[in-house]
């Protein structure tokens, strides 16, 4: 049927509700974008019924989703894992101009070529011949393809060079690394899903020869471009360099090797866990010394959660603490994410009142840190009280008597904390100390004295210690109008006091 033509009606077919067939000689005009607006207007004003107007939206931006990476060929993966450089070379050259694999390759590659060759062949020799005649077909690569086998990656996103660097450091593995680098030198800087380079992998595996070899490749003796520093400073997703991997496995030889190549490597990352902090955390004392000496004091002390190396050292021994304080006494003033200084950490340790102890060392290095509170307003003396370290509290008070009156964000002194935590020895000692009479009746933000809290804690021994000091007031009311006597009469049932447990 011919298209309808009338001088009385518009000819736009798109405006008509009923479907109308269009003659084959109708013109098709496509307007896609703002530049065609005038063209559309002109066409709409015409009487040409043989013009079909098609309005198309502007082209949609191509998808930004990255295609999945190629999966590494099992032939290549097997050769890389075993360090069979001849097999690797044969595969990467795809058989072109190469001798028959039986002449220069291992039994492994022959078996693999046979297995991935024509399974319909009756004899192994025939299958192997077929495989070697068309290696590209075996590798599922189009004939003449420019796609490289080295584009394939493992499940972890590692390249062939990652695999070689991980699995060995014999001459075969080193030669394999050379072959891969000659084909694709950018793989030396490639990262897997964890952000690790081949150098990370070699260091983590303790392959010192491979680490040295990869550094040599980065030196670019063939290209004339030295990229060693760039390679060593690469951080993975955990912000760790290859030096961190060497520290983790406790390999001091690799640590020395890396530090000799880059003396400031121990200062990376600029924010995060430093190699020194990690070494102290793992109690690798020898590596700690190596990092400090090889860095010429240009190293980072930072650690996780805002901590520094001294935070880690005080929890791991007197010797490490002593070294850190000698190297950098300013670490005593630094606070972590919770506001805790190294002295807060040391105050929580047991039996720290003797001379030379960890807590004693930190206190001697900076006695002003006694007056640094954490994010909850707790001072080191509050921490010591919460764990019941009466000796540590005595040491603090001998150093700075005024620290006895320090109050946290809840208005509590160390005596309040001790009473609340039922640390009887600390409360009893404080009640016998004439220099502490002035803190016995300090009230916290709720108006409670230590006596209020001792009664609430239902400890008869603490109650007796406080009541036995005639300077303790019995009639101070807290914010809800209760005196210690009120709490004892109405808040505690008869016989509920615990006077059996020693604290």
Please describe the topology of this protein.
Blueprint: E1 27-32, H1 37-44, E2 51-56, H2 74-82, H3 85-92, H4 101-104, H5 107-115, H6 124-133, H7 135-138, H8 160-167, H9 171-183, H10 198-204, H11 208-219, H12 228-232, H13 242-248, H14 252-261, H15 275-281, H16 285-295, H17 309-313, H18 318-327, H19 342-347, H20 358-365, H21 380-386, H22 390-399, H23 414-420, H24 424-432, H25 450-456, H26 460-467, H27 484-491
Parallel strand pairs: 1-2
Helix pairs in contact: 2-3, 2-8, 3-9, 5-6, 8-9, 8-10, 9-11, 10-11, 10-13, 13-14, 14-16, 15-16, 18-20, 21-23, 23-25, 24-26, 25-26, 25-27
ANK repeats: 238-270
Pfam family, one: Ank_5
Keywords: ANK repeat, Repeat
Please give a structural write-up.
The protein is mostly helical. It has a domain at 407-494: Ankyrin repeat-containing domain (Serine Threonine Protein Phosphatase 5, Tetratricopeptide repeat). It contains 27 helices and two strands. A two-stranded parallel sheet has the order 1-2. Helix 14 (252-261) runs parallel beside helix 16 (285-295), helix 18 runs parallel beside helix 20 (358-365) and helix 25 runs antiparallel to helix 26 (460-467). The longest helix is centred in the middle third of the chain and has 13 residues, at 171-183. Mean pLDDT is 84; it is low at 1-26, 53-60, 100-104, 118-128 and 142-146. It holds the Pfam family Ank_2. Keywords: ANK repeat, Repeat.
